[in-house]
Amino acid sequence: MGTRSITGTLLFFALTLGACTESAGTAPAVDASVRDVATERREDTGADAPQDAAEDAPALPSLIGPPEFEDRNADPRVVEVELVASVGVAEHLAGRMTDAMLYNGRTPGPTLHARAGDRVIVHFRNDLDEPTTVHWHGLRISDAMDGNPMVQPPIAPGATFDYNFVVPEAGTFWYHPHINTIEQLDRGLYGAIVVHEPEAPRFSAERVFVLDDVRLDASGQIAPFAPMGHDAVHGRAGNLLLLNGSAARASSTAPRGAFERWRLLNAAGSRVLTVSVAGASWRVVGTDGGLLPQPYTTTRLAIAPGQRFDLEVAYDGDGGPAQLVTYVLAQTDAGVQTVPRTLAEVRYEGEVAAVAPTYPRVALPARADAPHEETLRLGATTTGALRFTINGHAHEEGSDPMLEFPRGQPVRFTIVNEIAPEHPFHLHGQFFQVLTRDGRDAREPGLRDTVQLGPRETVVIETRLENPGRWMYHCHIPEHAEHGMMGELVVTP
Ligand code: C2O
Ligand code: CU
What's the pLDDT tens digit per position in 421-432? Predict the structure, then answer.
């Protein structure tokens, strides 16, 4: 009783004052100065022919990054794969074996690679000794295949389930469990999904960068999970940054003059990753929901947990290397400061005269004239056990007041973060656009399924709810979601 109220008081201060300075900081405003350099570049590079012209059955471009699933279906429009979740070891640090949870024996799991409109069949087996489901984060598929444990009965240890769906649109997505996500995600259960446009823009190469952090103890094992304290309030942050499962700097080569597509995904539990590219020109060409109508340039990108960004990288620097850089807090002679850290480098080797990619025309839904308005207040209760809430309600299975909308209904959600901890807010099965932050134009173009809310920030999003079904929305910090910051809505057909 006494301990509980003291804990409650401490949590109250942490929640209201924001006792944390550990994260990489809030999202810097995106410089959305749109500049259409594709046209200029096309003129610059003249009439160099694209590398290949296999018109009738164009193969999917190959991906540099985690290996792809083995597709065992001969039909080019069906991707049929096997997926097994199990315990095993990962080599996050060279020569050190860390007990982990793995998809097909690795973390990240294999990349699921398809083309928009393809059918995907995943024969899943749970070899963990706890239940799980697989959620296909960002894909607008049917709710029965979405991995929501309130729709799909949890897959018991030793049991199997066949996920079977059509991927409706192109973009960079990912998959991860939706049960005991605090541990299952942190221990390594996640993988990338790349869905190509029917007429995909052509690049010299495409790279998949799955970013994460993990907390290892002195013995190189994943540190025990603390149910209370800082981790519960802010989500668990790691002490080791991982790129495609490894803490080592990834190193490779590319010819000067090449154009590449870099697909970035933040799979970390709570850390916002701020990134930049050095040694090459780059611009943002896609977000959670696929390509943008207009690429834009910026100096740094803040990637919230769960979010994706697609970049066009032009190897036009003075010899490189091109580097994927992130920014971390570190102890320096001048005190604790934000310092750049290189996660990957691509050395220039050779030279090509590549043609700048041309992008398909993309139109985003216009702002609705008279959208339905809803407010979601993100908060917490500190009397007794810590619970996170939406509109005062901590999620409990079967007890949620469910919002219901007809399909196609434009809805404007005002999401109010009433506490100090930040929240990457995620809506399943739909895309939305971010309209404003604290009343100001957000200047965050593109479709999203996840948006970051800073301390006490109010963010307005608009969605069209085009996908019928029963959909979860929740904070993507597993500690917050599993302690109540979760809800569901229904879109009627
Ligand atoms: Cu990426 Cu409900 O999750
Ligand atoms: Cu949260």
Answer: 999 999 999 999
Which ligand 1 atom is nearest residue 176's CA? 1
pLDDT one-digit tens code per residue, 1-20: 334 444 444 455 556 554 44
Please state, as a whole number, how many other Cβ atoms lie within 10 Å of the Cβ of residue 416. 17
**Tokens of residue 259, six digits:** 């154009």
- Which one of the ligands is nearest to 473 CA? 1
Cα 100 to middle of ligand 1, angstroms: 20
3-state DSSP assignment of residue 37: helix
Residue 40, both tokens: 């200029």
Confidence (pTM): 0.90
Q: Which protein residue has the closest C-alpha to ligand 1 atom 3?
A: 137
Instruction: With CA atoms as reference, report the closest residue to 42 among 355, 312, 258.
Output: 355
Ligand showing the shortest atom-to-Cα distance for residue 308: 1
Listed residues: CB within 5 A of ion ligand 2: 423, 475, 477, 480
Residue pair 463/435 in contact (Cβ under 8 Å)? The answer is no
Spacing, Cα 479 to ligand 2 middle (Å) = 8
Give the atom of ligand 1 at the shortest distance from the alpha carbon of 174: 1
ω into 321 cis (within 30 of 0): yes
Which ligand does the CA of 415 lie closest to? 2
Tell how far the Cα of 30 is from the centroid of ligand 1, in angstroms: 24
138-162 pLDDT tens trace: 999 999 999 999 999 999 999 999 9
Contacts of 221 (CB under 8 A, 6+ apart): 98, 99
Question: Closest ligand 1 atom, CA of 472?
Answer: 2
CB 87 within 8 A of CB 128: yes
User: How do 171-177 and 134-137 pair as beta strands?
Assistant: antiparallel
Site residues for ligand 1, CB cut-off 6 Å: 135, 137, 176, 178, 306, 426, 428, 472, 474, 476
Q: Which long-range contacts (CB under 8 A, 24 or more apart) does 37-43 make?
A: 37/283, 37/295, 38/295, 38/356, 38/357, 38/358, 38/359, 41/314, 41/356, 42/355, 42/356, 42/358
Instruction: Check if the beta carbon of residue 260 is closer than 8 Å to that of residue 206.
Output: yes
